Amino acid sequence: MPSDSLPNFPNPANPASAPPPRTRRPIDPRGPRFSAAITAVLLLVVVFLALTGASVAALSLLAVLAALFAWGAFAGVGRHPYGWLFKRFVRPRLAAPAELENPAPPTFAQGVGLFVTAVGVVLGLLGLAPAVGVAAALAFVAAFLNAVFDYCLGCQMYLLLVRAGLLGRSPAAA
Fold first, then answer.
1. In terms of CB atoms within 10 Å, which of 47, 52, 79, 98 comes out highest?
2. Domain ranges of the chain
3. What is the tens place of the pLDDT at every residue in 93-140?
4. Rounded Cα distance, 38 and 80, in Å
5. Highest mean pLDDT, choosing among 18-32, 77-91, 147-161
């Protein structure tokens, strides 16, 4: 899809079409899938570590993943380390995407991942070691679906919340 047909995004040929300051640049939809693939592998390692009794290692790796989810949720998927790896090393080797994607749903999905992994970390720190593996397994399912089938559960949650009017409304409309 040409960039001039994307709603709410600037048209480089027409500087007057500059977006409001809070609008983010569209992203290549293959970037979040790349990130999900890396995340899925690391979450599978956490599950393996948790099942084999290496609870400290599992908790530590899940804490790192929670921090990466926080980075993606608060800085946006375009500024995430995996996004940088995709832009620097993978995207130059690929053809241009057929269309670009709004970064809001994948950024929201990062927040969902943060919530799930943070709950696992907190429960693990409170001495409930099995919660680390369970949280990692839940997050793995979502990352796997995104990486393999291009089905983002967090993005779908975002769209449902927008349709319900709980997200995406301006303060004046609320």
1. 47
2. 28-163
3. 999 999 999 999 999 999 999 999 999 999 999 999 999 999 999 999
4. 13
5. 147-161
Q: What is the DSSP string of 110-148?
A: HHHHHHHHHHHHHHHHTT-THHHHHHHHHHHHHHHHHHH
Contacting residues for 109 by C-beta, under 8 A, at least 6 apart? 32, 142, 146, 152, 153, 154, 155, 157, 158
CA-to-CA distance for 141 and 138, rounded, in angstroms? 5
Number of Cβ within a 10 Å radius of residue 173: 7
Say which residue the tokens 């796997």 belong to: 144
For residues 94 and 108, give the distance between their C-alpha atoms in angstroms, rounded to a whole number: 26
| Residues whose CB is less than 8 angstroms from the CB of residue 106 and which lie 6 or more positions away in sequence, other chains included | 27, 32, 72, 77, 152, 154, 155
Q: What does the chain come to in residues? A: 174
